[in-house]
């Protein structure tokens, strides 16, 4: 039985090694939302069961120790599609030659914080990320903005990346949809 399992594993490894890995960055990678996404990305649920992945985990400098723990957890899973995991706090590393970006990281609204202060903080974050996409990413990169307010943050990122087609940007607005539906 062990021989059959070993053979199956080797076949799976051989198939998945044939394709070139895509480079995927996840921002805010030490946060809870990103944490819940990373395993699905790494095991092939997002980009396909035969698509190898280089996963770049981007977060702010104070979160690097947490990212190291996330890297160890992903490595412990021994997922055959996961070729490399790169933790970083540098946009030039995080966005270099990427094929896909999942922009999860944004400033959360804190108690007593006015909406304008939240928007101001997120403008800075998504301008920086948009500029990094423009400068370092492949021009065919697909971008998904998750960090709220997702539609505003997506617009800011896309405006800050003029060399990337606008149709390559999308955002998750299900929360906004649900809120609007409940008012109708």
Low-pLDDT parts are 1-11
Q: Identify the CATH class.
A: Alpha Beta
The spatial strand order of the largest sheet comes to 3-2-1-4-5-6
* Strand proportion: 15-25%
Straight-line distance between termini? 59 Å
For this structure, the CATH topology is: Rossmann fold
Question: Secondary-structure element sequence?
Answer: HEHEHEHEHEHEH
CATH architecture: 3-Layer(aba) Sandwich
Shape: globular
Query: Helical content, roughly?
Result: 40-55%
Overall SS class: alpha/beta
Instruction: Give the C-alpha Rg.
Output: 18 Å
Kindly state the number of beta strands. 6
Number of structural domains: 1
Folded structure, characterized:
By secondary structure, the chain is an alpha/beta fold. It has one domain (18-183): NAD(P)-binding Rossmann-like Domain (Rossmann fold, 3-Layer(aba) Sandwich). 48% of the residues lie in helices and 16% in strands. The chain has helices spanning 2-18, 32-43, 64-76, 91-94, 115-136, 150-159, 174-183; strands at 22-27, 53-58, 82-88, 100-103, 142-145, 169-171. A 6-stranded parallel β-sheet has the order 3-2-1-4-5-6, with helices on both faces. Helix 3 (64-76) links the parallel strand 2 and strand 3. The model is unreliable at 1-11 (pLDDT under 50). Residues 23-169 form the Lactate/malate dehydrogenase N-terminal domain. GO terms for molecular function: L-malate dehydrogenase (NAD+) activity. Keywords: NAD, Oxidoreductase, Signal, Tricarboxylic acid cycle. Residues 1-19 form the signal peptide.
